[in-house]
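Hi there,

I know you've been waiting on this one. I reran it after we fixed the sequence typo, so this is the corrected version. Both the input and the resulting structure follow.
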Amino acid sequence: MDDRVPCLSRLPSKTTYSKADKLRKISQFETQISLKMTRDVTTNNLKLSKTDDVIDNWIKKTSLSQQPPDITLLSDIIPQSIIIKNTQKISSSSIQSLSENNFERKPAVAECVDNNYLLDLAARLQYGEEKGFKSRLQQYFLVNYKSALRIRTFNFLIKVLSCILYCVRVLNDEGTLTEHLTNSTHSDYHNLFWVDRSHSLWIIQTIVAVFSIFNTIIHFIITYKGSIVRLLFNIHFILELVTSFPLVVSVFLTTGREIYVPIFLNCWLANGILNAILNDINRASSVKHSAVSRQYLILFSTLICLVFTGTCCIEHLQRAGKNKIDLFTSFYFIIVTFSTVGYGDVIVDTKISRLLVVSLIIAAIIIIPSKVETLAQTYMEQKRAGVDCTQGFAKGDNHVVVTITHFEADFLNNFLTEFYAHREHQGFIVVLLSPAELDNKTKLLLKIPLWSQRVVYIRGSALKDEDLERAKMSTAVACFILSARHINKKIYTDEHTILRSWAVKDFAPHVSQYVHVFRPETKLHIEHAEVIICEDEFKYSLLGNNAIIPGLSTFITLLLHTSRGEEGQKSLEPWHKIFGFHSGNEIYDIRIGDSRFFGDYIGKTFVYASFYAHKNFGVCLIAVESCDGEIKLNPGNKHILDIDDRVFYIALTNEESLSNFKKDINKQRKNMNKTLSIVQAKNLADKETAVKETEDNQQKARIKRTILQKAKAITTFKSDTPRNDNGNNNEKGMPTIDQVTGFNESSSEEEDSSDESDSNEIIKTYPPVTVYIGTAPVVCHMLKKQRAICCLQIAEPCSHCNYKTASEYNFPSQAIIVAVDKTSSGLYNLIIPLRAYYRPVEELHPIILLLELKDSETPNPAFLDSISWFPMIYWMHGKISNLENLLKAGVCNANSIIVIKEGYTDVEEHLADCSTIITVQKIHRMFPTLRVITELTHASNMRFMQFDAYDSYALQQSKFEKREKKHGSQMPFMFRLPFAQGNVFSANMLDRLLYQALVKKYLVKFTRLLLGIEQTSGSGYLTSFKINKDDLWIGTYGRLFQKLCSSCADIPIGIYRTKKMDSKTISLEMEKIKYEEYLKKNEFYRNNFYKDNLSKVVTEGMRHLGMVCDEYECKYEDKDKLSYVIINPCHDMEIEEGDLVYIIRAPVKESATSKKINPKRGLIRKQGHLSKETNVLSNYASQYNEVKDETH
């Protein structure tokens, strides 16, 4: 049997049986087998030879099939006895492997394939049992791709050669025929049947014709299936008879050697062979060729055949006319006729020629449109599929792959802008891989010259190796795996992300992955990724911190945003210039040994280096990474800088980008001073009204700043008043600022002596129960004894507590209400920073979770179990749109309310935030003084937050937004008042954190520490304090920086400034003229009707719940104030009353007592002391006195 089995490697790889054919063949086969088996079992004489006859009959009946059988189908229908019998005819090794099964069961598909049985039978079914001469021809001409390709290529060349020989014959035809053919009585049509052909040319054409006839006969033999009629009507066979058979006959007929043969028709045979060659190339080659190029080639070859056929026909038919034309003229005539209506310079004068022209035009109309349509469809499909990168990129080009379910124009624009904002990425190519087709807006974006040569789109799935190969994933520098936002259940999106990440890891294990997911529990499955951004972790922790540190969401968003500080510089608004300029600050890192900023402070304390680096260069040192690899925020005076330490600082630009160090630093200072002068100019009127003593003090301060700027030593410092030789103040009553030394000094921490509250109930430890696997170990304030689950529901009385509203609990501090439409594990990350161990117990705010659940539905038991260990955390059913639910949650006395939207509604894209915006607006109208922090799906919708049609200044911000868009800003909405105040946040702003991670690998870890998601031993923490009138003695931000560093080792990083909108603050000319009359008409209506009605609705609701109405007062907020953040202010910026200073406080030990820390402990006035190291610059007092004498 083995000798008669065809080569299994040459079998077709795919089965194309239809379902009906399978069922029909199964039925026929089972019928024959069952009849035979029944007869044999009855006689107890089962003979293997008869079984062989059954299979042989089946083989003969199925041998006519054009498609190979389904191997998996055979394993289910072949009886066990036949398998046993046929395995005896296979190799001994196969028999041995099958004999281990003892034939107690039917072999599985894998076993049969491994033993070549099913493949053997498949070959017999397809190509017949006998491997005779016909079978060998089939293998050589059809089955074997390579040999079939060679044969077809040879036939193609033969056909092309015959057409070339025809042209040679036409060009050499002089019209001289033999004597017996040159009779004057013959008509002109006589020349159509006889031509002048040289003997040598006849021999060559005859040899070519013999090869063609031979190939036709072979093809007839291997494709013959019992029908000669089908062969006779085959167009290929007819053309072979017309073009080759007359030449073969002329070998035996001497007079037929000059008969005309239309050999030029072989071009159509060559065209058909070319199509077959293209099929063989796609089958034999491992490289897939473009379908569009194939259609182009087919269309081009068809056009050539039409033109060539028409040229040869016109030339030959005009031999019978008076106007005889040559081959080139005929070619010109055909081209002109096909392309235009003809010029009339060349005409045909025979009826046959004219009829031929009409026929050719009709044929072209029929053939060409169908080919063009196929080409157009193929081109459009390939265009939708994107570019194929299998041929690679230019030498030296690096590329990254970005894969997501669906690309949006805004999202893609943000990614490309952020990615190419870094100098290291300028030579990169971005490959977009997505299974969805790009929309028109995104297509237009990619056609912009800025991106057209740098971005490649491929339509495909990351789950398919073929598409990953098209994207050249194996040679990519990195792969960004992003999650689609607009899906109602984000867990499904994370599941898709996990599979894509696994597929990329399987295909290219060495490629770094940067993955974006939603749920924290997803991180467990993609630990192999280089960087993982969990949106819920960052979003919830940022919103939680924003509740106790106002404006922090805006501060972090701008800090993670790549900008040059050019936003708002062309605006007329002073606060736009300051806000926009300082938004250009970013986080950078550098090794101290390679730094000019910090290289001089090796061996000094961290705080010492932070102050003097800010003073001399305007950079803020905030964190360090030692040899242990742990990042520490402000490790305090205990950390001594080493040459190998890597430090992290906030600056307008990184040190490596300063080509000319001194020149660039001076340029930055000049820009800072220019921006600072705007603020100082606005405060000039107040300074002129100050007393003369204040003017003298300011003059003294300017003199001292001038002296210090000229000093060369970096250890100089600012002091309020000069000192005499005895170290006493020259002027009494003026406080002094302690000097920042380079030694480890004990910081004087001023703490309140109040007793610890609930010291017997709250301890500092790790949470005993976590919501999800993979939670970072964070020490928090925890209860010694777990609360009962029933006590967590604040609005439902239980056996332990009979309270029904939050006001009845009499919390020591204002509560934070968190309104969520759906519960998720991410809420755990909102609680962690608010219950961190370093926050005093007295400052802990109660957290009330307002969950939009069904009445019978409760949160996840695991979630309730975890929050029951935290102090003062409750939950309740309700919606923020329901006033009664808000009153029960204690909205009247709340610190703030956080509105988070988890689900996604299937509405128009930008209307997804509609319900949230309307509800927040309702809350804002009823409780104007309540601080509402809202998460929006689309950042562009923040213009609707706290919308007031009568606030003309807020409405004018749209003009600035449009102007910033024209200037190319990626955050044109940054000057919208809700965003500048830090009351609005969009999660897609965190996407930039992932985009920068390729260059700043530390950024994700750093942000997690800053937000309190993780904790590192010996690391500080982020907090804030407010400047009041008594603190204005400190003067400037630089003096504040020095005082905090010297007294308590705290490092300020920014300011949240609230200013009154007046002529000193804003310069925009309000369009009051057209509003005055309208406002006057509606002033009474607004201030009384709506206010009274809203107040009445709220008070009635409180009476219904039995609450005290005195807790509510419907007073409108002061709309004459605006707030904004200033990142890393310059050294000379003046501190103003109401400023909220962001600081990174020095680390607190976990074992430290939970006493209430004075937030302004560093601003307590005390007499300064001289450093033993610097000795206050011995020439400082003398220089001061010299300048003072000169002024007098």
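Quick highlight: The first helix runs from residue 19 to 43.

Best,
R. S.
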